[in-house]
Design brief:
With 447 residues, this protein is an alpha+beta fold. The chain folds into three domains: 2-203, Beta-Lactamase (2-Layer Sandwich); 216-284, Signal transduction histidine kinase, dimerisation/phosphotransfer (DHp) domain (Helix Hairpins); 292-442, 2-Layer Sandwich (Heat Shock Protein 90), CATH 3.30.565.10. It has helices at 2-25, 31-46, 48-51, 77-85, 103-110, 120-123, 129-139, 172-245, 254-284, 297-315, 334-350, 399-404, 410-420, and strands at residues 53-62, 67-73, 94-96, 114-116, 143-151, 154-163, 292-295, 318-323, 330-333, 357-365, 368-375, 424-430, 434-442. α2 (31-46) packs antiparallel against α8. The longest helix is centred in the middle third of the chain and has 74 residues, at 172-245. The protein is elongated and about 110 Å long.
Length: 447
């Protein structure tokens, strides 16, 4: 009965001590704070003045260099004195993992505690024999006990407990307490490392993200500047070419006319590309402001049909407008939606062969105005459909398409404009049977 009476309080003290230690060192996940708290709180819980403990050192394996590194040391007068007189800075005491003469390495390899009365056993090869023993003598340490730290069955490092008594004077309760400490330390160190690694990774990602934003801003500025600078000379080339083609400078030969028409058309395409790049730069730079108004999409569709009439005649295409009757106005920026319609109808014209049909439909559906552009063209292959609305998302692999050309910016730009309006854009297509591109816009409410 007496044994039970004396053992129970000691066991309770051990559990209480472990609980306090766990709370202290798991209270923070910052790696530097955790490792310092470990050494200080372990020594505090051991009641070092009464039990003879003077210094606690935590050393962890650095897998990148394959050495055992000193990480932290308790903040006691003896530890401070050791740091002052040491010939090797504390943070430079690295023990190679293959140096088995050091009992710290043995404790890790064999997963069991080791005891020494000679500091050379824990400081070689960073110190020589004479240096290790001299410091031990000055500080007055008699015994050092090395306990391995493990986590999930793998050794992570050691804790060194240096005291002014012999190992025979250590009670079983002290040993149980130390073993319990090292288990808690293994968990704390692993958690803190994972958290600190995550913090460091997040920090690097944040820095990289800031740099990417800076580069993106510089890119937008460059595209905007380059577009402005390119547009002026190209407009001049187009204007002078038009003058020559219209005999403003005298008659030209049929061959010269053919060459100049190619120059004129190429310049027009280039101007269109520059304008698209400039528009995208403005959108991505947040510099586009919509001028919303009550937009009659049926009337706008008729205007676009009239614009494409000469081309429809030239390509022998039938162009139609379908509507359910009187359609409520949509809330839209006239210029932007006009550009979207021109892009979509222009694409249908590109991919529809002679004798085909292109139709624009306007209807009300679910409090939205839907506009569809349907053609009887070549359609879009399944493997190409995912990238249709991506920037430079050209459909490749078709002889027809490769002859037509295009930048792949028109659909991307159209999607940006429609989504800025709070609408949606989508398509349906079947190879060989044509495509239908549809976009929706909210109804105009007068707000």
């Amino acid at each position: 009965m007496n044994n039970n009476h004396t053992t129970t309080p000691q066991s309770k003290q051990t559990i209480d001590s472990l609980w306090r230690l766990e709370k202290i060192i798991l209270d923070t996940l910052n790696f530097k704070d955790v490792v310092q708290r470990i050494c200080d709180s372990v020594l505090s819980e051991l009641g070092y003045l009464q039990l003879g403990y003077r210094i606690v050192v935590l050393a962890l394996i650095d897998e990148s260099t394959n050495v055992l590194k000193r990480i932290s040391i308790s903040q006691t007068p003896e530890a401070q004195k050791a740091l002052e007189i040491t010939p090797v800075p504390f943070q430079n005491i690295d023990i190679p993992m293959n140096y088995s003469e050091n009992i710290c390495i043995k404790a890790i390899e064999e997963s069991k505690p080791y005891v020494t009365h000679d500091w050379k056993d824990i400081l070689l090869p960073s110190y020589n024999n004479e240096e290790a023993r001299k410091i031990q003598e000055i500080i007055g340490i008699h015994t050092s006990v090395v306990y391995p730290i493990t986590y999930h069955g793998k050794s992570r490092g050691v804790m060194i407990f240096s005291m002014v008594k012999s190992e025979e004077e250590m009670s079983e309760e002290e040993k149980d307490l130390i073993r319990g400490y090292t288990d808690v330390v293994g968990i704390a160190v692993q958690n803190a490392r994972l958290y600190s690694d995550l913090e460091e990774t997040s920090k690097r990602l944040d820095e990289a993200n800031k740099k990417l934003k800076e580069l993106d801003k510089l890119k937008d500025e460059f595209v905007s500047l380059a577009s402005h600078e390119l547009r002026t000379p190209m407009t001049a080339v187009k204007s002078y070419t038009w003058l020559v083609l219209n005999n403003k400078s005298g008659e030209i030969t049929p061959k010269t006319r053919e060459h100049l028409e190619k120059v004129y058309n190429s310049t027009e395409r280039l101007i269109h590309l520059v304008n698209e790049m400039l528009d995208i730069s403005r959108i991505e730079g947040g510099r586009v402001q919509l001028k919303l108004e009550a937009l009659d999409l049926v009337q706008l569709a008729r205007e676009v049909k009239d614009e494409f009439a000469p081309r429809a005649s030239e390509q022998n295409l039938v162009m139609e407008i379908e509507t359910d009757g009187k359609i409520s106005p949509a809330a839209g920026d006239r210029d932007k939606i006009h550009q979207v319609l021109v892009n979509l109808v222009g694409n249908s014209f590109k991919f529809t062969q002679s004798g085909g049909r292109v139709s624009i439909s306007v209807r009300l559906k679910d409090n939205m105005v839907e506009v569809g552009i349907e053609d009887t063209g070549i359609g879009i292959a399944k493997e190409d459909q995912e990238r249709i609305f991506q920037k430079f998302g050209r459909v490749e692999g078709s002889l027809v398409i490769s002859k037509i050309g295009g930048t792949g910016l028109g659909l991307y730009l159209s999607k940006q404009y429609i989504e800025m309006h709070g609408g949606k854009i989508w398509f349906e297509s079947e190879p060989g049977k044509g495509s239908t591109f549809t976009f929706s816009l909210p109804l105009y409410t007068g707000n």
